[in-house]
Amino acid sequence: MILVYTENWDGKFKKLSYELVSYASELAKKFNTKAVAISIGNVENSELETLGKYGVSKIVTVKNDKLNNLDNKLYTSVISQLAEKEGAKVIILANNNTGKAIAPRLSAKLKAGLVSGIETLPESIEPFTIRKKVYTGKAYANIVVKSDKKILTLFQNAFGLFETGGSAVIEEFNPQISESNITVEDINKTTGKILLNDAEIVVSGGRGMKGGENWAPIEELAQLLGAATACSRPVSDEGWRPHGEHVGQTGKVIAPNLYFAFGISGAIQHLGGVSSSKCIVAVNTDKDAPIFEAADYGIVGDVKKVIPEIISAIKEIKK
Amino acid sequence: MKILVCISNVPDTTTKVKFVDGKKFDSAGVQWIINPWDELALTRALELKEASGGAIKQVTVINVGQIATEPTIRKALAIGADDAIRVNTEPIDGYYVANQIANVVKSDAFDFIFTGIESADFNGVSVGGILAELLDISSVSAVSGVDFDGGVFKIKREIDGGTEKLAVKTPVAVTVQKGIAINPRIPAMRGIMQARTKPLKVVEPIAVEILTEYISYEMPKPKGKCKMVSADNVKELVNLLHNEAKAI
Questions:
Q1: What is the pTM of this model?
Q2: Beta strand A182-189 with B162-168: parallel, antiparallel or unpaired?
Q3: What element of type H or E holds B229?
Q4: What angle do helix axes B94-107 and B127-135 make, rounded to 10 degrees?
Q5: Which one, A154, A158, B173, B197, has least CB within 10 Å?
Q6: CB contact under 8 A, B217 and A134
Q7: B234 and A309 in contact by Cβ < 8 A?
């Protein structure tokens, strides 16, 4: 069977959990097997029912106070215990901070080949061949996973959601859990803001914004569209915006449906981080800026003038 | 206390990537560097050592690679690492590399192990976590800050929805990202001179089962031409995004 590691926040499944389950369900068809989801922590019952509609035959819930915070070692142990009990062939996780923390440990624990950052189903099952981006988006590699068990991490927003209308059996699982060597002393939750990796629309600014004090229009546009805000490397290096917002080769790699690049010239390292975006809009005063080669729509103009006009035109449409 | 920093030898991030017959990375004319996250990790490791009042005695770097990676290792020594280890083999995949490092660490224990979150070439996001599991020690990922405070390592990590501050018991492995240090340390002339005589131990590899194989490479399809809209007609852009791209 195919095992999916789902994630939740405040009692609800994250959108990525539905994407992962959709992916696992399609992959299970190729393998002629079933997909099973594991959920760690407290999730509302109605959420479990909804998840069942995306093609998993079973949802296994694990509740234990020792798992209140992410401890990579303990989570790996829990997931691998279930994987062995159920005979998982493939384990699928999100390619986010959590997935990146657990997937490699699972790979070592289960001696399962890991391919991280996939966007599509495998090209073939035997041999198991799958495509992923390498050199931060500059190329694709075709990878054969030779081991019997496999671990995959899926980029968010890459695969889509497919409701199949089924329903899942819900089962509890009580694995052995050892003591943690990690103590969480302080948690600072981001509230009221859309996370960069979750966002379907991202509004981003570069050096052309000419200073952190000029970010209000970007934030206004992001708010209007339910989008996340981002920036290019010089912006976070200058301290105009926090490092967590930096997208590009050494920052975050994102794949939103729509990416606005305001005052970003489009250095090769930046493009690596955003080239998977389905639609890129660039506004820059320099008509020769490389960002226009990567963009779908472009305006040669001053961001100070253009962004407020975009905002009012969108408000018109939303009326 | 001893710190180990795992460094990968990768093409400079401005490299125009090319392949020979779609099978092998074309290294002609490529500049090789310390993987950017590993370089930041090394910078932070040295800062911690200097501020520890002698509690942290040693910062060692390790690389899995053929002899051609030695200039990159010497650069790490020039930046300030005390000594270096090179496992003399081609880095085949993350599982293979982590096993080689684990083999070294099993006979030469380290209290704190740094790895970059990923390498700029294969973006495998694997070595740090696999290494920790092989050594059966704790690991923390997406780390954006490390402090050594009263003999305890304090770690700041990004979770999906915020940040957390942790206290961790050693031994521990962390995978670090942007923020751990802002600018990488640049070697000074004195450091470059000293690096020539610092110990660089070469270790032969162990046999490890290969779990994944990179069989071929492709370049992404070129993008269609960018549709330009006049700056005097911003409304048109929004109409296109709404009606044509259906993105808003």
A1: 0.94
A2: antiparallel
A3: strand B227-229
A4: 40
A5: B197
A6: yes
A7: yes
**What digits encode the pLDDT tens for the residues A2-37?**
999 999 988 999 999 999 999 999 999 999 999 999
Give B138's contacts (C-beta < 8 A, 6+ positions apart): A71, A72, A73, A180, A181, A182, B132, B168, B169, B171, B172, B173
Q: Which two tokens stand for residue B237?
A: 């852009």
Q: Across residues A41-65, what is the average pLDDT?
A: 96
How many Å separate Cα B206 from the centre of its chain? 22
CATH number at residue A296: 3.40.50.1220
Element (H, E) at A12: strand A12-13
- Asked if the structure places residue A274 within a domain, the reply is yes
Q: What is the pLDDT of residue B179?
A: 87
Of A112, A195, A250, which has the smallest distance from its Cβ to B161's Cβ? A195
- A303-318 vs A216-225: helix crossing angle, rounded to 10: 20
Q: Where are the domains of chain B?
A: 2-221
Q: Are residues A153 and A217 in the same domain?
A: no
Q: Which residues 6+ apart lie within 8 Å of A255 measured at CB?
A: A119, A155, A156, A157, A158, A276, A277, A278
Q: Please, are residues A152 and A169 in contact by the beta-carbon 8 Å criterion?
A: no
Q: Give the A window 14-33 contacts with B, CB below 8 Å.
A: 14
State which residues form the domain around A229.
Answer: 201-318
For residues A208 and A289, membership in a common domain is answered with yes
User: In the numeric block, which tokens belong to residue A105?
Assistant: 């440990």
- Residue identified by tokens 């460094």 is B7
For the record, the structure tokens of A172 come out as: 């509890």
Identify all chain A residues contacting B142, using CB atoms and an 8 Å cutoff: 97, 100-101
| CB proximity A134 to B under 8 Å | yes
Residue A207 lies in a domain: yes
A179 to chain B, any CB pair closer than 8 A? The answer is no
Claim to verify: residue A106 and residue A234 sit in the same structural domain? no
In a mutational test of the B interface, the residue from A100, A151, A292 whose CB has the highest number of chain B CBs within 10 Å is: A100
Whole-number percent of chain A with pLDDT over 70: 99
Interface predicted TM-score (ipTM) of this complex, two decimals: 0.95
Mean pLDDT within A218-227: 96
- Of the residues B139, B160, B174, the best mutation for testing chain A's interface (the one with the most A CB atoms within 10 Å of its CB) is B160
Distance of CA B144 to the CA centre of its chain: 13
Residue among A99, A62, A41, A77 at smallest CA distance from A180: A77
Tokens of A88: 């998982």
Instruction: Please judge whether B141 and A189 are an interchain contact, meaning their C-beta atoms are less than 8 angstroms apart.
Output: no
Contacts of A238 in chain B (CB under 8 A): none
| CATH number for the domain formed by residue range(s) B2-221 | 3.40.50.620
The total of other beta-carbon atoms located within 10 Å of residue A254's CB is 24
